[in-house]
Design brief:
Blueprint lengths: L55 H67 L6 H7 L2 H11 L1
Length: 149
């Protein structure tokens, strides 16, 4: 026994279709599925009209469907673009915050060093320029001497 092809929901039974193409729900009682065949799946009956592909009604429905698909794809593209813009904005904000962390860390180190230098001066010990250079990095020392001038 080979694999059985399951019927799609949109495919009506030949037995349930009448001559005019409409499906009928009159054959949809629960006795259709026998207890001996548990693999068979029962789908809800859908009233479908088979249309001639050359008819005006068919062309109108296709045109409406094509418009709906274009609109849906356009919305999807816009949503994707907005998401990418948001990602880029958050990345740049993250970079700015990382730079701010570096700057604030340097400032904290500078203030700690200034506090230590002040604490030594407050207890009667004077610090000359050479000792200040030893305390501070070259960059910090330059900032200190430019601020004091």
């Amino acid at each position: 026994m080979g694999p059985q092809r399951k019927k799609k929901r949109d495919e009506p039974d030949e037995a349930s279709c009448s001559r005019d193409g409409y499906t009928s729900d009159s054959n949809s009682d629960s006795s259709e599925i026998s207890e001996s065949d548990p693999d068979k799946v029962q789908y809800a009956k859908v009233n479908r009209v088979s249309m001639d592909k050359n008819s005006d009604e068919y062309r109108k429905k296709r045109q409406r469907n094509n418009i709906a698909v274009k609109k849906s794809r356009h919305k999807s593209k816009i949503k994707t673009m907005q998401t990418l813009q948001r990602v880029n904005a958050l990345k740049s904000e993250n970079d700015e915050l990382q730079q701010k962390i570096v700057i604030l860390s340097k400032e904290l180190a500078l203030l700690k060093q200034l506090f230590m230098a002040h604490a030594k001066n407050a207890h009667g010990t004077e610090i000359n320029d050479n000792e200040l250079k030893e305390f501070f990095s070259a960059e910090t020392y330059q900032e200190l001497t430019s601020n004091n001038s």
